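Researcher: I'd like a structural prediction for the single chain below. Treat it as a standalone chain; there are no partners to consider.
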Amino acid sequence: MGRARRARKIAQAAAYGGGMGVAGLGALGALGYGLIRAEAVMARRIVGQHFEGAPSDGDTYGSGSGAPLHLLVLGDSTGVGMGADHPHQTIGATIANGVAAFSGCPVELTNVAVIGAESTGLDEQVDRGLAAVPVPDVALILVGANDVTHRIDKSVAVRHLGMAVRRLREARAEVVVGTCPDLGAIRPVPQPLRLLARRWSRDLAAAQTVAVVEAGGRAVSIGDLLSEAFSAEPHVMFSKDRFHPSPAGYARVAAALLPTVSAALDLFGERSTPTEPNPRRGEGVGPLAVAATRAVTQPGSEVAAAEVGGQARGPRGRWAVLLHRIRPAVPLPAPATTGPTAPADDPTAPAGDPTAHADGRTEDPVLR
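Model: Treating it as a single chain, here is the predicted structure.
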């Protein structure tokens, strides 16, 4: 089963209250479940002990004459900032400073993330967050790693994430979700557990993306961003426990999220003039599940709801736009002018030229 189909099935199970099992991966998942039980003990011995806590980053950032913007952060230890040495080094603080610089307004950051939180804990975090900030301008959620390491049923995790996004949207907040990081980047974790963790992480991230967009939020893939950079320089990107990001690692994640948070707040006027996807960068409009699958292998990718011909849904479900707001260091190959289009579930295939449809719309074949 391709990842796009798995993402759809997990999201559908979440929507209708079903379950797909702990792994949700068939025979390989069953084998992985046995392996993870045996090797997780070894991994805990290798990975350093958790820190006593994390710096408290709840504060006002930036200055200006405008009314303050309210940023609410929810999620797990990544949202809290475990591994940072100073409050200003967390993802929330870095994004608050960036938004303040772009908007010219101070940003009031409220952080209700919890160390060790799973997606099932988002319900309580939303309660506390909205009690503190009844109408946040934007909410940032970072969650998923503990759902993988604690073997939480993916449909359960995705259901709670979707409910959290909906509640925040009902409170008139823009919502941005950083999807599950790639746990295969954690070098101290032995093989084959690391390979399984990578697959499980990507499957969860794709399903999270589907649920987030269906609930009215925007999803940003941070998994492979961490994998590539953290694997190349683990001594720089990881903190001393060899599991959580270092200040440099958090800065890299924040850099991937900041453009989407800024766009959600309409700091660049995209509501009146939406950004057009560029097929030469592998961007485009297509079925949500396919966009979600592409995003998990392309760091910094944003997936958000889109319309085609004035319609939000097509034959394969909701339409979505895939954007790369973080430009790749190496230029992507030029699109082919001839030849077949890429299969929908092949995330490594190059982008093709947009294809015209009978109704006049165009669609990037990379998302078909």
